[in-house]
Design brief:
This protein has 713 residues and is of the alpha+beta class. Among the domains are: 102 residues, SH3 type barrels (Roll), CATH 2.30.30.560; 109 residues, Roll (SH3 type barrels); 52 residues, Major Vault Protein repeat (SH3 type barrels, Roll), CATH 2.30.30.550; 82 residues, SH3 type barrels (Roll); 117 residues, Tetrahydropterin Synthase, Chain A (2-Layer Sandwich). It has seven helices and 62 strands. The radius of gyration is 66 Å and the shape is elongated.
Length: 713
């Protein structure tokens, strides 16, 4: 067994290396590792150690390469250089790229860069046409006559095969930009350099490449994007502004801030320069033969704006507004005036209007039928139309020259150049009363606002005076009143105002409860509650109703008299109440209770020479006449007195009821006796008549028997 073990061990110490295989052997005595390449047979000694099993040599196929880390140092004959101990010398930390060659073994310490994801043997990079590799130098070296420094970048353009170097890193693959028709490529300089066209570019400078085709940007160029061309038609133009002084594509020098217009007459398509800013697209302005416009700050023949000037342009024509130009009122139609129309004009500067010189501020009118295009020296203030008025309609007109206000009624009227409509203001209470049907408002009950359209203040104020009513108007300019009796229509003159009547209302009467524009002449009635006291100190509440009317002629003096007392209802009720209180105070309760109507009527109407109560009570101040008084109720204000009066009234009613019942019963018995007597008498009469009829029958029977006997005989 020991012999077999020794035999196997001896056989494992013998290594047969095939062609293009190698091993690394460590000499434990000298601590030196050497590389053995086959074909050969190697017998391991006791102080030697084989570090790994035989490995194939590294074979690099054509157009491939590999990267070696810690490569060995070689002499001029490409043989590895060893130190004094026989160890192969390495460039530790460095790398080496090896291209197509005979298979080689890795020296001790050399590492083939690569792992499972990254194949150690790599294909050479083929750069196609219109592509390039962006390279960066990581250490200084010299390539032919060109010296490269660390940090330098350059392009390796195709079509070509790129041979990698340790001193160079591939940053990225750059593809050419395809510039289509009506498109430009916008670039920016990363550093100062001279471009392909031989133009020196500064850092940050931008420019456009307009030539169609493929363009491969240089390493100093940064692609910002593509710029599309603007298509210019007969209806569109471009408004441009220079952001920096430059010379445009038309060879014209532009200054920073300058603005200009490009139309289809300049070019069919336009690619904005990097120093051109497109402010907007300008649409064409088209005028028909019935239109015109006024251009402010127009551009002159020198291409500059004539600030402060205006120019009128009439159709038919089409044009673009240049920078700085603007329309005063847009596109306007020619003013066409009918027979009943006119326009009010004002001169803003001196000019010759035909044969008439016009001064600034002068106003005049053009009346129809006509067509008119206002020149730039004229401002159209307004367009006026004749106001058609019925015979019961009117307007207020103010003359701006004299300040006089007048009313125009019942005709079609067109304002002159020095006239305007005047608004007549009325107090709020008058406005509210005009909106109500009869011009009257109860301040307590009528709380809802009237639903009426707002009044046109330029129209003459109208009010319908009802039948048997009167309205007082006061002219503050002439300082005299005007009274209108109904039925009639009141049309208020500019200096006239309504007289608002404040009349007492409710029961008992409260001042200023009813507001009214018209005074009703009656006949009408008013009710009131009065507290009176009898001579025996019984306090009573009287509910009275008065029938009244105004008895006056409609002359100027008589008409003014009815408005002499503002609150005629309150004065009437106070006067009547005073008379009633005086009369009741002289009577005791029992006497007043029995003769209340006569006492009140005598107190109010008075008694004539014959002791007869008069039939009316007249107020001479305003010709108001009370024709009748109705006592609706008499109630004591004291509760005990009211209860006693109620009991006495109930007792009187009960006595009256019983007496009426006895009289009715007696009358009923009398009628019953009379009916019985008539019945007995009728029975006797009927019996007599029956006996008479029986006697007649017997006579006829006897006569018949006699005739019968004679006949038998």
């Amino acid at each position: 067994n020991s012999f077999c073990t020794l035999l196997v061990r001896a056989m494992s110490d013998v290594i047969r290396l095939k062609h293009q295989t190698y091993i690394h052997v460590l000499d434990n005595n000298s601590n030196v590792t050497r590389c053995l390449v086959g074909p050969l047979v190697f017998t391991r000694k006791d102080h030697e150690k084989v570090l790994f099993q035989p490995r194939p040599c590294v074979a690099i196929p054509p157009r491939s390469y590999c990267r070696i880390r810690n490569p060995c140092v070689r002499d001029e004959s490409e043989a590895p250089v060893t130190d004094e101990y026989g160890q192969v010398r390495l460039r530790v930390g460095d790398e080496e790229i090896r291209f197509e060659q005979e298979p080689f073994a890795l020296m001790p310490g050399e590492v083939l860069v690569g792992d499972d994801k990254d194949t150690p043997i790599k294909k050479l990079t083929v750069v196609p046409k219109n592509s390039a590799l962006r390279l960066r130098c990581v250490r200084d070296f010299k390539e032919g006559d060109v010296a490269r420094s660390a940090g330098d970048e350059w392009m390796f353009e195709g079509p070509d095969t790129y041979m990698p170097r340790i001193e160079v890193d591939v940053v990225q693959t750059v593809k050419a930009q395809i510039i289509k028709a009506n498109t430009a490529l916008r670039l920016r300089a990363r550093a100062r350099f001279t471009d392909r066209a031989g133009v020196t570019r500064e850092v940050g400078e931008e420019w456009l490449v307009r030539k169609d085709g493929a363009y491969l940007p240089a390493v100093e160029e940064e692609v910002l994007g593509f710029v599309e061309a603007k298509v210019l038609t007969e209806k569109d133009a471009l408004h441009l502004e220079a952001v920096k002084s430059f010379t445009d594509v038309f060879g014209k020098a532009r200054r920073a801030g300058e603005q200009w217009l490009i139309t289809h007459k300049d070019t069919a398509t336009h690619i904005p320069h990097v120093y051109e800013k497109v402010l907007c697209e300008v649409k064409v302005t088209t005028l028909s033969n019935r239109q015109f416009c006024i251009v402010m700050d127009p551009v002159g023949a020198d291409g500059k704006n004539r600030f402060g000037e205006m120019e009128i342009r009439r159709g038919e024509r089409s044009f673009f507004l240049h920078p700085g130009e603007r329309l005063r009122n847009g596109v306007e139609n020619i003013v066409v005036l009918a027979n009943d129309e006119a326009i009010l004009l004002k001169a803003v500067e001196s000019f010759q209007d035909g044969k008439t010189p016009r001064q600034p501020g002068e106003k005049w009118m053009i009346r129809g039928p006509a067509e008119y295009v206002p020149p730039v020296q004229v401002k159209v203030l307004e367009r006026r139309q004749a106001i058609a008025l019925d015979e019961n309609e009117g307007i207020y007109v103010r003359d701006e020259t004299t300040g006089k206000v007048r009313s125009v009624i019942g005709e079609a009227y067109l304002l002159n150049e020095n006239e305007r409509l005047w608004e007549k203001e009325l107090p709020p209470i008058v406005e509210e009363l005009l909106a109500r049907p009869n011009g009257t408002k109860h301040m307590v009950k009528d709380t809802d606002a009237p639903r009426a359209a707002p009044r046109d203040k330029t129209r003459v104020v109208r009010f319908n005076v009802q039948h048997n009513a009167a309205v007082q108007l006061y002219d503050y300019k002439a300082k005299k009143p005007r009274i209108v009796f109904g039925p009639d229509l009141v049309m208020l003159q500019p200096d006239e105002e309504f007289t608002v009547l404040s009349i007492s209302g409710d029961k008992p009467k409260i001042p200023n409860v009813v507001k009214s524009l018209q005074l009703f002449l009656g006949p009408d009635f008013s009710s009131d509650h009065i507290i009176v006291e009898t001579s025996d100190h019984a306090r009573l509440q009287l509910k009275l109703s008065y029938n009244w009317r105004f008895e006056t002629d409609r002359s100027a003096q008589g008409a003014a008299k009815i408005f002499s007392v503002p609150d005629f209802v309150g004065d009437m009720c106070k006067a009547v109440a005073s008379r009633v209180r005086g009369a009741v105070a002289a009577e005791d309760f029992d006497s007043f209770h029995r003769h209340s109507a006569r006492i009140i009527r005598a107190a109010v109407f008075g008694v004539d020479e014959n002791g007869k109560i008069c039939d009316k009570f007249r107020f001479t101040a305003n010709d108001l006449v009370i024709t009748n008084i109705d006592i609706q109720a008499v109630e004591p204000t004291d509760s005990k007195t009211r209860d006693s009066l109620q009991q006495s009234v109930q007792l009187a009613i009960e006595i009256t009821t019983k007496s009426q019942e006895a009289a009715a019963r007696h009358d009923n018995e009398r009628k019953d006796q009379e009916a019985k007597g008539k019945l007995e008498r009728q029975k006797l009469v009927d019996k007599v008549e029956a006996e008479k009829a029986k006697r007649s029958w017997l006579e006829l029977q006897a006569e018949s028997e006699g005739i019968q006997a004679c006949g038998q005989a």
